[in-house]
Amino acid sequence: MARFLITSALPYINGVKHLGNLAGSMLPSDVHARFRRMQGHEVLFICATDEHGTPAELAAAEAGVDVRAYCDEQHDVQKRAGEGFRLSFDWFGRSSNPPNHRLTQHFCEVLEKNGLIEERVSRQVYSIDDGRFLPDRYVEGTCPVCAFERARGDQCDNCGSLLDPVDLKNPRSKISGSSNLEVRDTAHLFLKQGQMQDRIRAWVDAATEWPSLARSIAYKWLDEGLIDRAITRDLSWGVRVTKDGAPRPGFEEKVFYVWFDAPVEYIGATVEWAEATGNDWRRWWRTDEGAGDVTYVQVMGKDNVAFHTVSFPVTIMGSGEPWKLVDRLKAFNWVTWYGGKFSTSEKRGIFMDQALEIAPSDVWRWHLMANAPESSDAAFTLEQFQAGVNADLANVFGNFVNRITRFCAAKFDATAPGEGSETELETKLRADVAAKLAAITQHHEDMEFRKAAAETRALWALGNEYLQVAAPWTAIKTDPARAAVGVRMGLNLAALFAVVALPFIPDAATAVLDGLRVAPDKRVWPKAESAAALALVDVGQTIAPPDVLFKKIEDADVAAWSERFGAG
RNA sequence: GGUGGCGUAGCUCAGUUGGUUAGAGCGUGGGAUUCAUAACCCCAAGGUCGGUGGUUCAAUUCCACCCGCCACCA
Known about the structure:
By secondary structure, this protein is an alpha/beta fold. The chain has helices at 19-38, 54-63, 67-84, 98-113, 197-206, 212-224, 258-261, 264-277, 282-285, 305-318, 352-358, 361-370, 382-411, 424-445, 449-470, 472-478, 480-501, 506-515, 555-565; strands at residues 3-8, 42-49, 91-94, 117-127, 132-133, 139-142, 151-152, 169-173, 181-191, 229-230, 232-233, 242-243, 246-247, 255-256, 294-301, 328-332, 335-337, 378-380.
């Protein structure tokens, strides 16, 4: 038994996430957490909403509510969506909660003591009417190069020139439209990442087990050279900047940059969990207080890799304190909507709340993991979704459970029969099952979700192949004992299939196990070589055929959804 | 613009440390079966492995360039 700390990249507070966000971090981390728990390991699975930053402020303003209220509401919405998808977080926290504030302030202070923080003054655009400094992207004006009238402060979308907002002609606030702007000096804290370059590189060098996507992104940043980054912003919504525990002089109107405090929330959320449940968070995060034997697994989309392989490690390592660093990192590419981007504004794609309106969570979980964007971007299409889900879940798995349990109910009084002895057919089946189990286990351990799903499906197919040959419906006419062997084996296969499917499709798998009366203590990850893997249903046990597990997705459904979600 | 990734059967993807007939699922066609959600099982057809050159006895696999798509950075 080992200990696994698993974190999913934090979903930003700004609205319900779409299927790509789900498939790229929250869902795979959940599948892995479930798998590790089933293996009997001690698992702590943490996620949270990432709530600070300008986009949250702007979204709140647009909604006409204050930021805190907006985040309260959106956090609940996202929490419910997560529950709807059966994401088994041990804690779903909030980066705006006090533990994260304390920790973020702590990290900044120790980094400063270690000479890694520097205060620098820069010139920035201040909007008098908005009463705030404007981030570069929120200043609009006429491009000094091409005269395009809606150039952004950081770049002109028309000619591509890189700009400084101070250079724009007729600048105005993108927030209020006000042109009552001026340039002011403002101080910010800079994290001197450059000083940590060698230590980070050595650490990445040693991380040979990371996937190539993660390492190549880390090396790209390291090769370009780590630049010192401003870790504060002129905003009101965020973590206050302190010095020696008190408000830092000159920084009363500033907060930490969201990318500085967001990853700290992995720890902060663990503290929230500990405070709420009476557990000890230090034994998960402090290597001097029991976290030395923890394997820390991070799951994220590729856009987050640099922050997890470089920026956050700079914070952690730069603190000089014995914090737990990531051991295994799994990065995903994007799920695309018919090859293009998901788009909220153009109503292209499906978001988590909508998805649950049209199909059960298991169906999405299965399809998104069986087609996870692991090696490259993966296209989601409703047609593929329909075909794959109907074939894998309804036809192969669901129908197998249905045919064997109904046959048992009709001919064996819904009781697992004990007669008959196994033949070479069963011997071969056991060997095939053991081989598949070994492969599935390995893929789960490697966090190769696509392969794990494919092999799980292949395991299910073994059941149908077996029944086809064993044909208890034929044998029962001449050799009831032979039929009994087939039914007994079939019931046990159904139970095993469900156990192995628990990480992917927990609801349906649980329904099967409940119907087969498999005791909770038997719902653990099976060892491939163990005969126990096919001894989950006791002889003489009465079973209840579950209802049809998966309703098929009809062509009419696809047509309606295409209309609704803008397919193709 | 720079950097990286990708481009393999109708579709979604594996794979090849360079070497006889390139794989899976879906879809399609045929057969078998009837316990079952017209499901399951078996068989088959389908690809000059993005293009052009190069290295090599041999390249889909290495190299160069080109085209297309994607991401990141500036």
